[in-house]
Design a protein that fits this description.
The complex is a heterodimer of chains A (about 120) and B (about 350). Chain A has about 120 residues and is an alpha+beta fold. Chain A is built from four helices and ten strands; from the N terminus they run βββαβββββααββα. In chain A, a hairpin with a 3-residue loop joins strand 6 and strand 7. Chain B has eight helices and 20 strands. In chain B, the strands form four sheets. A six-stranded mixed beta sheet of chain B has the order 11-12-13-10-3-14, with helices on both faces. In chain B, strands 5-6-7-4-9-8 form a six-stranded mixed beta sheet. Chain B has a six-stranded antiparallel beta barrel with strand order 15-18-17-16-19-20. In chain B, a hairpin with a 4-residue loop joins strand 6 and strand 7. Chain B is globular and about 65 Å long. The chains are: A alpha+beta (about 120), B alpha+beta (about 350). At the A-B interface, strand 4 of A face helix 1 of B.
Chain lengths: ~120, ~350
Amino acid sequence: MSDLKYSKEHEWIRLEDDIATVGISNFAQEQLGDVVFVELPEVGKQVVQNGDAAVVESVKAASEVYAPLTGKIVEVNAALEEDPELVNQSPTGDGWFMKIRLSDASQLDGMMDEAAYNDFTASQS
Amino acid sequence: MVPFAGYEMPVQYPAGILTEHNHTRAKASIFDVSHMGQVSLHGDNPAAALETLVPGDIAGLAAGRMRYTMFTNETGGILDDLMVTNVGDYLFLVVNAGCKDADIAHLRADLPGGSSGGRSGGIEVEVLDDRSLIALQGPAASAVLARHAPGADTMPFMSALPFEVDGSRLAVTRSGYTGEDGYEISIPSSDAVRITELLLVDDDVALAGLGARDSLRLEAGLCLYGRDIDEATTPVEAGLTWSIGKRRRAEGGFPGADVIQRQITDGAARKRVGILPDGKVPAREGTEITDADGTVIGIITSGGFGPSASGPVAMGYVDSGHAAKETPVNLVVRGKPRPGRIAAMPFVPNRYYRGQE
C-alpha cells in the first residue's frame, strides 16, 4: 500500500512537508485513454480546492484536472510537454502533474486512502 | 461502450485508440459498422429516380461500380451523405445510422414511383435490416480478404462484387472511411459473427472501434455527417463539388440545384478547409477560428490528435477569403488564441487501390 491520498475527482496526492505532488490516478488514465497533451498551470499560480488547475487531452477528449487542494503551484512536470504518454505509463510516478504548496493541510483530511479509493472506483464502474 | 445513434458501440477495444489507429495504417482492422443503413432500390430505372434526390451521376454509374453522393434539400443543404452501388439490376445504398429512418422515409415518400410495396412500375425501397456491415481496412486488407475471396485483391477502388465465403453470400465493395485500401463487406446478420471471426484469425487483423474510425477519417479529410456536413451546409461549401458530375451540374434536377449550381459558378461564402494547429494543443469541434485581428472567421467542426500525422489536425469552415492554404489563423482553445494555419487535406496521403503497378 502506498502513502497516496485520492480525491473523488481522481487525483492523487503525495504530501512531503507542506508540498503536495499531484497527478491523476491509474483509474483516471485508463478511462481517458491515450494522453496526447497536458496543459499545466504556471508556476506561481494560486489554485483553489476543486478549481481548474490543468487540462489533459486524450485522443478522445479534453478533460479538466481540478486542484485537489488550495495553494500555490511551486513546480510543474515539464517532462509531460515532450512525453504526455508518461501519464499513461506511470500515472502515480513520472506522470505527475504539479506540486502545490498547501495553504491548509487540513483539506487532506477529506481525502481517501488507496483502499478507500479502490472501493470508490469499483462502485463507479 | 457508448450509445451511438441508438446502438451500443465500442469507442475502443482493450488495445486503445492509438494502437487501433496505428494498426489500421500498418496492417488491417475490422470495424463493425452494422449500425449503418443498408437499402436497395429495385424497379424500373432506379438510377433515374434516385437522381431526383441526389446530385451525383447515378445514371452514369456502370454495373459493379459505386459512387459517393448526398441527399440534398431545397436550399442545397445536405440531409445525409451516402454510397450508391450499381449492383446490376438494382441499386444498393449505404446511409448513416443517425439518418437512416429519415432517409428511408424520404425515399419512400419522394422517390418518383417510390413505395414500400414494390408495385409494378414503381421503385421498391427495401430496407436490408437483416444484413450486417463490417469494414476491413488497411494495407493488409486485400491479401487477407483474397485468402477467403479469391479475386477480391484485384477489385478496382469503388467497385463491388459478390463473393461466397464459408457458405455465406457477401456483398463486397472496395471502399472505406480511413484513407487506406480496404473493403466494406455486407453479410447476412446470422453469419456476421462467424465471418468476422474467420477474418480475425489472420495475425494481421485486429478489431478497431469508433475512436480509431474517427481519427482515421479525420486524417483522411473525410466528412462526418452531423459534424462537418449537415442540412445547413451545401456540397460546394463542404468541398464536395467533385462528387457532382458534369451532366448533373449542367442539368440540375435535384433538390437545391439552383443554389448549388449558383455556388459552383460564383463560389460559396465559406469553405470547408483543413487546419493544422501549431504546437501540440488539439483544437476540437466547436473551436472558434479568428484572424490576426481577433475577428471570428470560422469554426472547427472536427478536430483532435492525428496519430499518423503526429500532432493535432482539424477541419472546419472559414470565410472564403481566408481559405487559401497556408493562411495563418488563430484557434481559440479555452479562451486563448493559439496559432495555426489552413492546410491541404488529407493530412495523411490516401492509399486507395489504384490497380496493379
